[in-house]
């Protein structure tokens, strides 16, 4: 049973036209979501199927940071189109896969979720710590597919291992074990010299970027193993895990992403015997809300000047790589860390 206000939220969210979440300015240590949400032990979910919101236990609360994704069309891969593809192209799809994308309420995660649907995902499950934006984005994504692809939103903070386990169990019960995890949830602190780095901020960032990758991979990996199912885990790291950014000081972020890369490699070695592949995507500077703040304008000019392609990556520039790593086209690839940075790391 769901409360009236919760159902109202689901109904509102099911309307594709919902917009206007507020955008909080990013600054070092700015809260990108409602921290009080962390530790939720129930795992409420909202499903969008057949054009309807199916259920919700969520009470939307305070305004949270957001940059809405634009509504456009997401074209699901049909059987007819799949059948007309050459074998090589078929291998590049993720037809009939169940996919979890974290941090997909907006930004790179949201775009990768869209791409996965166009590449054949049968179900799309979004985990994000921003409940208001997550519900709206799931509704929007479902509507963008012409209400053809179920999109389920779980208001999960990737620091909350208990909630993650419960959510993965619930997904597995409904759809079977997930085939693909793309872990894109992450935060950044920048322009903070190490000597004045607040200890709590450091712990919080490591907790989200590194521990969150571990909690997510462990929960999804265990579900894949229990079902004896091959799977692909894609961890979104950063070029900052391999280089030191200039000019901003951001030792904690860089350390967290280096940890993600080494964690991904270690996991790839451990889980190859279960037919579970683990790879990292390491983006360069991307044009997302994470960087979309006036305070970074001057630095962006420097970033561009240091990038051979002389631009930031577009928000959908990871899509092809994410689908490739999720698909069987990359079946001999595990433990890789793929830089996708417009050439930034060449210099
Ligand atoms: N934007 C860039 O330039 C860039 C470069 C390299 C790597 N990355 C990485 O790509 C990933 C996505 O970045 P983005 O630019 O799309 O950022 P974004 O801020 O636009 O989106 C991040 C999403 O993650 C969610 N999130 C934050 N903390 C969470 C938590 N604890 N639990 C669950 N969800 C949480 C947010 O609500 C948001 O929806 C991050 O891991 C980031 O470090 C980004």
What report would you give on this structure?
GO terms for molecular function: mannitol 2-dehydrogenase (NADP+) activity. It comes from Lachnellula suecica. Keywords: NADP, Oxidoreductase. InterPro entries: NAD(P)-bd_dom_sf, Sc_DH/Rdtase_CS, SDR_fam. Belongs to the short-chain dehydrogenases/reductases (SDR) family. With 347 residues, the protein is α/β, with parallel strands linked by helices. It has one domain (4-14, 27-57, 72-346): Rossmann fold (3-Layer(aba) Sandwich), CATH 3.40.50.720. It has helices at residues 4-14, 79-83, 87-91, 107-118, 131-144, 161-175, 199-226, 251-271, 297-305, 319-326, and strands spanning 46-49, 52-53, 98-102, 123-127, 151-154, 180-183, 231-236, 276-283, 337-340. It is globular, with a radius of gyration of 19 Å. A 9-stranded mixed β-sheet has the order 2-1-5-4-3-6-7-8-9, with helices on both faces. The chain is built from 10 helices and 9 strands. β7, α8 (251-271) and β8 (276-283) form a beta-alpha-beta unit. Nicotinamide-adenine-dinucleotide is lined by residues 32-33, 102-103, 105-109, 128-130, 157-159, 184-188, 208, 212, 236, 238, 283, 285-286, 288-291. Nicotinamide-adenine-dinucleotide (NAD) is lined by residues 32-33, 102-103, 105-109, 128-130, 157-159, 184-188, 208, 212, 236, 238, 283, 285-286, 288-291.
Secondary-structure element order, N to C: HEEHHEHEHEHEHEHEHHE
**CATH topological fold name:** Rossmann fold
SS strand fraction: 5-15%
User: Looking at the structure, what is the overall shape?
Assistant: globular
* Tally of domains: 1
Helix content: 25-40%
Number of helices: 10
Strand order in the largest sheet: 2-1-5-4-3-6-7-8-9
Report low-confidence residues grouped into runs of 5 or more. Answer: 1-41, 56-67
User: In CATH, what is the homologous superfamily?
Assistant: NAD(P)-binding Rossmann-like Domain
Radius of gyration: 19 Å
Family: Belongs to the short-chain dehydrogenases/reductases (SDR) family.
GO biological process, one term: mannitol metabolic process
GO molecular function, one term: mannitol 2-dehydrogenase (NADP+) activity
Keywords: NADP, Oxidoreductase
């Amino acid at each position: 049973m769901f409360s009236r206000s919760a159902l109202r939220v689901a109904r509102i969210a099911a309307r594709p036209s919902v917009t206007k979440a507020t955008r909080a300015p990013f600054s070092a240590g700015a809260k990108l979501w409602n921290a009080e949400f962390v530790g939720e032990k129930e795992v409420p979910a909202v499903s969008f199927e057949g054009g309807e919101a199916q259920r919700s236990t969520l009470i939307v609360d305070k305004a949270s940071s957001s940059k809405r994704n634009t509504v456009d069309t997401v074209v699901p891969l049909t059987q007819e189109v799949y059948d007309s593809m050459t074998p090589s192209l078929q291998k590049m799809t993720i037809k009939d896969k169940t996919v979890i994308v974290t941090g997909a309420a907006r930004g790179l995660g949201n775009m990768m979720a869209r791409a996965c649907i166009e590449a054949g995902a049968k179900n799309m499950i979004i985990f994000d710590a921003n409940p208001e934006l997550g519900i709206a984005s799931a509704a929007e994504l479902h509507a963008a597919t012409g209400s053809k692809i179920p999109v389920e939103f779980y208001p999960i903070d990737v620091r909350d291992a208990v909630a993650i386990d419960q959510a993965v169990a619930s997904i597995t019960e409904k759809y079977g074990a997930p085939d693909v995890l793309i872990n894109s949830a992450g935060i950044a602190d920048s322009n903070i010299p190490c000597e004045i780095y607040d200890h709590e901020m450091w712990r919080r960032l490591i907790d989200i970027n590194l521990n969150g990758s571990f909690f997510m991979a462990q929960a999804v990996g265990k579900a894949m193993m229990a079902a004896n199912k091959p799977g692909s885990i894609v961890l979104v790291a950063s070029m900052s895990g391999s280089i030191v950014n200039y000019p901003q000081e951001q030792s904690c972020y860089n350390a967290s992403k280096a940890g993600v890369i080494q964690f991904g490699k270690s996991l790839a070695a451990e889980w190859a015997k279960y037919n579970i592949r683990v790879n990292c995507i390491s983006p360069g500077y991307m044009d997302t809300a994470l960087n979309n703040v006036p305070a970074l304008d001057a630095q962006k000019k420097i970033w561009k000047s240091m990038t051979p392609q002389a631009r930031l990556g577009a928000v959908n520039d990871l899509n092809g790589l994410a689908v490739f790593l999720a698909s069987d086209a990359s079946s001999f690839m595990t433990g890789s860390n793929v830089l996708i940075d417009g050439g930034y790391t060449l210099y």
